Amino acid sequence: MKNLILIRHAKSNWDTPLKDIDRPLDQRGLKDAHLVSLNIPDFIPKTYLIWSSIAKRASDTAVIFAQNLLYPIESIVYNEALYTFDERQLEKIIKSCSNTYDSLILFGHNAAITNFVNKFGDVFIDNVPTSGFVSLQFDTDYWKKINKGKTQKIIAPKDLK
After folding, report:
1. CA atoms within 13 A on the CB side of 89
2. Number of domains in the chain
3. What pTM was estimated for this model as a whole?
4. In this structure, what are the phi and psi dihedrals at residue 4, rounded to the nearest 5 degrees?
């Protein structure tokens, strides 16, 4: 059994003229990342690996979640290839995960996340919002063989307000 949790980065700040990859979180993003991460412990597997895009908004979101889940931030794996908006690229990266890990939490970007959960989950989601949490479970022991899975849990910040 493989468990995949996809989390879209929190709301970013567009007020300063920065490259897309360098955009930080805004105040709402900071609040929403804390809100969601503090309300998911019951939906997190006992052991897991955290991967994150290298984009500042994604990596900052991953750090907030890791801190609130008591996961060592130095164990977060940052992957340049996760700075993608294409679900095919995202699928390729997820399928490269070592089979020694049964659970993966991944921080990334839209449209890749929404398209991925709609292709691999069994619940249609119009749009995974910023700080959105989607948990999928796959009936296989091999990441390379993940196919249609079961959507276990969906949490959006607005559900918690």
Report:
1. 14
2. 1
3. 0.97
4. -125, 125
